[in-house]
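Reviewers of the previous submission asked for a worked example of the structure-prediction workflow described in the proposal, so we include one complete record here. The input consisted solely of the amino acid sequence. No template or homolog information was supplied to the procedure at any stage.
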Amino acid sequence: MKHTKRFKQQQQIVFFQSLGALLQSGYDMAQSLDTLFLAHHSWRSWLSDIQKDLAAGQSFSDSLRPYVSLDILLQLRLADQHGNLSESLILIGKNLRQIQRQKNKIKQVMRYPMILLIILGALLVGIKYFISPILNQWQNVDMSENKSLFVSMPFVVTTILLIVSVMVMICWFKISSRKKLLILVKLPIIGAIIRTIVTYQVSQQLTVLLANGLTLPQVLESLSDVPQRKVLSKTASVIIAHAKQYLADGESVENYILRQTYFNESLAGYFARGQAPKIIAKHLSYYAKTQFEMAMRQIDRLINTIQPICFGVIGLSIIGVYMSMLLPMYQSIGRLYQ
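From that input alone, the workflow returned the following structure tokens.
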């Protein structure tokens, strides 16, 4: 029975870097997988399936399809067909390690705010179902207006947010993949991060293909031939088709990049000089690394911004909870002395 569960990201990091190192040391693919099979007992079920697929004539990228994400599959397919597979494997492992560090940092930053939110939720429940009824019993006058405000406001706000969320989701699913990307890159804060990530991914893929002497039209043709469901995401397929049509109309690569808001404009400069594909690939290799590092820095800044905002929102919420609890108490005490 074939396993369909993906490798955990930490396992992928070790797998890709170890496999790339073995290939660079002179081992062939079969020997490398055998070595990993013996070294990692927990991987044996996956590695056994991969070895069977390779023995049946499948490509390395196709054999990994059930276990890794589409963007990694595309990198593996291109590297297997046109580039240096061992170097690509090590690079994938390094990038995954950086991404894993960012995820761990996000978890650490958000852990304390999440605990405070849980405590805040418990306070709200306690006030609504325990303290509020007691306060209402103290009242000798009609508290229907205050009760209505206290009880129905959260319900009204929640209902409005739910309706708006459903409407946004319905509209979102009706929009094409490329239009979704155009909307995302215009959003404050996260738009710049998405733009940098897209630029990094595109420059990295172009590095592999251009290094083998392919021109950009040939690159687009090669990517168009890739089965979408197997390797390419829907968004990538739409972008490739759009770029292919644009260049077929006689427009330059530089102008195309400058007109697309989901690319950083600096990418266009590498295609403005009319250099040979292999020379462009060398420049793009360095450029892709800088874009990846920039994306990591942008995510770091976002993380450092999110935490104070979360604490501020939680602090205001706690003040609101205490106000809603204490004001009725003061009103009740005041009436006792009248």
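The first helix runs from residue 9 to 24. We consider this example representative of the routine output the project will generate in years two and three.
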